[in-house]
Design brief:
This protein is an alpha/beta fold. It folds into two domains: about 190 residues, 2-enoyl-CoA Hydratase, Chain A, domain 1 (Alpha-Beta Complex), CATH 3.90.226.10; about 45 residues. Helix content is about 40%, strand content about 15%. α7 packs antiparallel against α8. Keywords: Lipid metabolism, Lyase. Belongs to the enoyl-CoA hydratase/isomerase family. InterPro entries: ClpP/crotonase-like_dom_sf, Enoyl-CoA_hydra/iso, Enoyl-CoA_hydra_C. It comes from Nocardia alba.
Length: about 260
């Protein structure tokens, strides 16, 4: 880890990952990219951590996107395939992630927020896919078609115009809104709700959503049923109904 990305492994099973370059609006410079790769790896391989919350330091920006100065200095054309650490793309995560968007999420900032499973945003946050304004492209936005309507996606990519957090919420990009200063708390509350579920059930639910976006109806049903077998065969699958019948909080073992 480096100080460009902070990692807080909380006792409750939540990892808080913070992009820590507020002076550059948390842009995705090389040190931030390296720190984020390390943070995701640490989260994935720590069995005590079940949900990650990704946020940015400061109150102006979640992440302003790629480092344009680096692109100029290196004469960058097509970014290397492994340049950015993105769940479901360049890295594989088996546990839920939440973006806590505290300010502007532009270009690469939108990209990393989009790559998380869920999104909580400040009412003062703004979102934009600005690549058309700087002659770049946004192939990473392709999965957005599974999140928002086609014509809204088209307008966002063609104009590069920013939208408010409220608008992002209305079109389905954002799950929950929070007042400025309360975004992390709202994201932690959402994470805590996830933690109350059985770990294998949460994993199967996450897999089901992603399989449904990758496949047609029949294939997705078959794949989701196969993904659910481990959950159904677990001790937790017996503990849940037993706890309900006994009117008590279940004790999850994760197996």
């Amino acid at each position: 880890m480096n100080d460009a990305v902070l990692f807080d492994a909380r006792a409750d099973g939540i990892a808080v990952i913070t992009l820590n370059r507020p002076e550059t609006r948390n842009c995705l410079a090389a040190d931030v990219r390296a720190g984020l790769y390390a943070a995701w790896d640490r989260f994935e391989h720590d069995p005590a951590l079940r949900v990650a919350v990704l946020t940015g330091a400061g109150d102006k920006a979640f992440c302003a996107g790629g480092d344009l100065k680096e692109m100029v200095d290196t004469g960058m054309r097509v970014p290397p395939p492994e340049m950015f650490p993105l769940p479901y793309d360049t890295i594989e995560l088996s546990k839920p992630t939440i973006a806590a968007v505290n300010g502007a999420a532009f270009a690469g900032g939108w990209m990393i927020a989009q790559a998380c499973d869920l999104c909580v945003a400040s009412t003062a946050a703004t979102f934009a896919i600005t690549e058309v304004k700087v002659g770049r492209s946004s192939p990473w936005a392709a999965p957005l078609i599974h999140m928002i309507p086609q014509r809204i996606m088209m307008e966002l990519l063609l104009t590069g115009a920013p939208i408010t957090a409220r608008r992002a919420y209305e079109v389905g990009l954002v799950n929950r809104l929070a007042e400025p200063g309360a975004v992390l708390a709202a994201a932690l509350e959402l994470a805590a709700e996830i933690l109350r579920g059985a770990p294998l059930s949460v994993r199967a639910a996450r897999d089901t959503v992603m399989l449904a976006t990758e496949m047609g109806r029949s294939d997705a049903l078959g794949a989701a049923r196969a993904a659910a077998v481990e959950c159904y065969d677990s001790a937790d699958a017996q503990e849940g109904p037993r706890a309900f019948a006994e009117k008590r909080t279940p004790i999850w073992l994760g197996r």
